Amino acid sequence: MTIRPAWRRYGGAITLPSAYVSVFVDLGYAVTAHRAQGITTDTAHTVATSRSARENFYVSMTRGRHANHAYVAIDQPDEVHEHAHPSENPDATARSVLYGVLKHVGAELSAHETITAEHERWGSIAQLAAEDETIAQAAQHDRWATLLHRSGLSTEQVDDILDSDAYGALSAELRRAEANHHDLDTLLPRLIQARALDDDDLASVIHHRVERATSRPAGSGRTRKPARLIAGLIPEAGGLMLADMRQALDERRDLIQDRAEVCLDTALADAEPWIATLGTAPTTAREAALWRQHAIVVAAYRDRYRITTTSPLGAESDSAAQRIDVARARSALDRARELARRKDSAPTPQRPTRTTGRTL
Fold it and tell me: Which SUPFAM superfamilies does the UniProt record give (predicted)?
């Protein structure tokens, strides 16, 4: 085989040995996914991006007789896109991109299907939780700024923290710590003053310290209070704030809780496979209510992260926030199973046997 650069008419050609060509060279044709329908090749290669549709990806990954390869793009599409779009995930992985491709339906929907899909999108816990976090961050901005000042930081350092890309994660971590009943007025100054802050990104350093110090709820044993979590997952924003902010947060709290209950009721009514993994609900009122409370957490987790697999918690995630939520959902799953097992193993009451014969 002779290879010559396309931009040169003469010279610059090299000849590859036949032994090398037979092992390392494939004869390839570039076609679109639409043109590839009906074609079968020995091997097929396709590029998948966050904008790829499920239908085209299926066609591309079923053309090869012996092998099908996908090359997943997790960076920006070209040099023109220097800054990420707000909807893009900066922590995207090949798995998360492919998950998005499989959820991206390219076929046009009917008017009824469009209305249903939009209602599901805007009414989902994924959307409501994102709105809750955005409102909470704005509502608690002044409070966290004041607390950082009181912790011994200079005005310049506090401004750097508030302007940092990591401030959103820090704000969420402070909210999570407070929901776990940690006294931030005491804890945060102690964590900040424990060691020198010599890193360029102060927000990341403080976030890491808070995360490590508050990984478990405050208190121990019987004194430990349950965390203030919406649907067992989302930390409630506390503290003083503007009345309209408080109202907006309360509305989303109620919507998230209602949505989680609807998701569970729908799964029970449709006998979705993942429900069976929780076991059967107990018959006694108290234990049945506890079982439902734990099942709601699992249903909320599935809706928040758009899990549609038969396994209750889906695949593992690389996201730090999702790892926290999956730990809560797994704990709820285990408790629901334990309640179901307790019901199954309860002894069946025996009726007293009655004897017949002569009596005094």
Answer: P-loop containing nucleoside triphosphate hydrolases
What rounded mean pLDDT belongs to the chain? 85
Number of C-beta neighbours around residue 76 at 10 A: 13
Report the percent of the chain where pLDDT is more than 70: 86
- Summarize pLDDT for 259-273 with one digit per residue, the tens: 999 999 999 999 999
What does DSSP assign to residue 14?
Answer: E
Which contacts (CB < 8 Å, 24+ apart) does range 63-71 have? Answer: 63/36, 63/39, 64/40, 65/40, 65/41, 66/42, 67/42, 67/43, 68/43, 68/44, 69/43, 69/44, 69/45, 70/45, 70/46, 70/98, 71/45, 71/46, 71/47
pTM of the model as a whole: 0.67
Task: Let me know: does 302 contact 312? Beta carbons within 8 Å.
Answer: yes
Domain ranges of the chain: 2-103, 141-235, 245-345
Q: Is residue 329 within 8 Å of 260, Cβ to Cβ?
A: no
Contact 144, 166 (CB under 8 A): no
For the stretch 202-211, pLDDT in tens is 999 999 999 9
Separation CA 218–CA 99 (nearest Å): 36
